Amino acid sequence: MDFTGEDGWPCEFEESPWGVALITAIRALPGGDALDGDTVTAQARMIWAVAEGGRDEELPRNRSASQEASEAEIAKLVELSERLADHIEAMRRPALSALTNVHAYPFEAVRSLRAMAEQAKVAYSEINVSSAPRGRRQKIEAAEVAFIAARLFEEVTDCRATFTSHESGNVSGEWPDFLSAVYDALGIKASVPAQVRALNKKGAQIQH
After folding, report:
1. In a 10 Å sphere around its CB, with 0-12 CB exposed, 13-18 middle and 19+ buried, how is residue 46 labelled?
2. Separation of alpha carbons 36 and 53, rounded Å
3. Helix axes 140-157, 174-186, angle to 10 degrees
4. pLDDT number for residue 157
């Protein structure tokens, strides 16, 4: 993936806003200042990669849906494909010439759209949802980043990723502070207390 610096120009990961923020968060850990540049950059990049993977898993194409919703999506695809093909075929010479001048060939798209519509109609018989999805959508990115951040915290600090709970529902400690900094660096909107407690319940190398 290409990264962009604050000045808008392409840059290396460690010079990007995300890289700088993650490296700063790792360096701030007890023992983080002793890490060499290549190591801390690799650690920051690992967190970034996990976040990217989790974000991809949250995309609609990777989520389940009910039979009814799936059939509705196919029907919408058929409708939009046919409408767009009809629109292109109804376009007149000036617009078509302008498209051709910029190497856009709309009638090639028409053939693909017509084929897509026909294939989508056949796809109805291929939809087979045994059970509708239940429960709230999981924050996969937040959970996976919390896990890798906990492992990294323990590796750098040589301490268990523990936390202190408060009656207010908040948590405190170096581990949740680090996770908060990581979330801020990546722009993840998730509850640090909720993710810390969820990870603790799973026993994923987190001990309260």
Report:
1. middle
2. 26
3. 130
4. 96
Answer for the pair 132, 67: CB distance below 8 angstroms, yes or no.
yes
**E strand or H helix at 39:** helix 37-57
Mean pLDDT, each 10-residue run in order, the chain (208 residues): 83 93 96 94 96 89 87 95 97 95 95 96 89 66 95 95 91 95 95 92 55
Residue 16's SS3 state is coil
pTM: 0.70
CB-facing half-sphere around the CA of 165: CA atoms within 13 A: 11
What pLDDT shows up at residue 7? 83
| 156 CB-contact burial (10 Å; exposed 0-12 / middle 13-18 / buried 19+) | buried
- Phi first, then psi, for residue 171 (nearest 5°) are -130, 160
**CA-wise closest residue to 178 among 201, 198, 155:** 155
**Percentages helix, strand, coil for the chain, rounded to the nearest 5?**
65, 5, 30
SS (H, E, C) 128-184: CCCCCCCCCCCCHHHHHHHHHHHHHHHHHHCCCCCCEECCCCCEECHHHHHHHHHHH
Instruction: Name the residue among 190, 192, 194, 198 with its Cα closest to residue 180.
Output: 192
Q: What angle do CA 67, 70, 76 make, to 5 degrees?
A: 140
